[in-house]
Amino acid sequence: MADSGGNGAAASSGTQGANAKAPKTERGRRTLRKLLDAAALEFGERGFHEASIAGVTSRGGLSIGTFYVYFDSKEAIFRALVEDMGRLTRAWIGDRIKDAPDRLAAERVGVTAYIEFVRQHKNLHRIVTEAHSVAPDAYRAYYETFAEAYRRNLEEAAARGEISDGDHEERAWALIGIGSFLGWRYAIWSDDVDIAEIGAAAGDLIENGLAPRPPFAPRKAKP
């Protein structure tokens, strides 16, 4: 899973989005960031239905009035969090793959970077998952934004001769699926496997596929 949000450069990790009222000052941007960080804890720990605006402001050390300067409702800040996680994820991965020598190397590094991100931001990952039922349009937009940038990067890599040509949109969604479920297994459900080992296994699959390669020695299936 190696997507930088566009053209190989790290995506912006800013906080402005369609669901938040854009701050005009640096102080305002810091306050918005505090609200989003507090909301990540509140929604991540309690879930959308149990979370409250009062819980968000209490965690952030802010007033209820300050909340309404930036958001109209609990749903609005929840949607902003989903959007914010997309920016943070793409920026995190982009920063780590920017020095990769080619696309295949970037894919391997990207898998490890994504799992590392999820391990450190488990609350945000759970928020995006809950968006599937709470805000399905925001959930879909999260993945479609990721997939479009991914498709573009794969297309550019094919033009440079770094990967084979093909249907890059379908490839993008398949690669996102690999990263997403590796995140569930090796970051959310358990984090006891070394990230480098996961990246090597996923990288080998992406580079070489499932076809047997000589010399071939059948491996004993894991119990």
Quick summary of this structure?
The protein is an all-alpha fold.
Q: Overview of this structure, please?
A:
The chain has 223 residues and is mainly α. It has a single domain (26-208), classed as Tetracycline Repressor, domain 2 (Orthogonal Bundle). It is built from 9 helices and no strands.
Characteristic terms for this protein:
70% helix; mainly alpha; 223 residues; Tetracycline Repressor, domain 2; 9 helices
Write the layout of secondary structure elements.
Elements: H1 26-50, H2 53-60, H3 64-70, H4 74-97, H5 103-120, H6 122-134, H7 136-159, H8 168-189, H9 195-208
Helix pairs in contact: 1-2, 1-4, 1-6, 4-5, 4-6, 4-7, 5-8, 5-9, 6-7, 7-8, 8-9
CATH fold field value: Tetracycline Repressor, domain 2
What percentage of residues falls in helices of 4 or more residues? Answer: 55-70%
Strand content: under 5%
Mean pLDDT: 89
* CATH-level-2 architecture: Orthogonal Bundle
How many β-strands, per DSSP? 0
CATH class: Mainly Alpha
Compute the separation of the termini in Å. 27 Å
CATH superfamily: Tetracycline Repressor, domain 2
N-to-C SSE string, H for helix and E for strand: HHHHHHHHH
Overall structural class, as computed from helix and strand content, comes to: mainly alpha
